[in-house]
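Task card 7
Instruction: Convert sequence to structure tokens.
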Amino acid sequence: MNSENDYMSNGYRVTPKCLAEAICYKMTDQEIDHIQDDPYKDFVEISERIMNFFGFSERIIDNILEKSERGFLYDLEDMDLVESDTEETRLYNGREWRTNYWILNKEKIHEAAKLYREGKNRNSNNESDKYSVYDDVPDGVWYRPS
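Output:
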């Protein structure tokens, strides 16, 4: 069986499940708290939609996207899960033509998904994963004599 580094470096495809796990790992507690239901389920739906744009490619052209779809990619870019790129071409009439692309950051996606699967998700909503140094302090410490 391949090691996790082989998995990332051999160019394995990003799946909607993998992207959803990466998004879960990258989201903050405040962002997740705004989601009513299971955030992972919502992220899988969003990831399926995003991966439909990419298909079997790692790069898509920006002009195929609607404004709302582009917004998802800007959010993923803020999480460092996708990158944008611009290519300039000189036309026959001498004008410059810019083409904008979105590129999957496969290594970062796989890395974040791996951390999510390992349970090291710093944004976990599981109460057993949340620990405070104050949990071990006895209640009596907090009372002052009047």
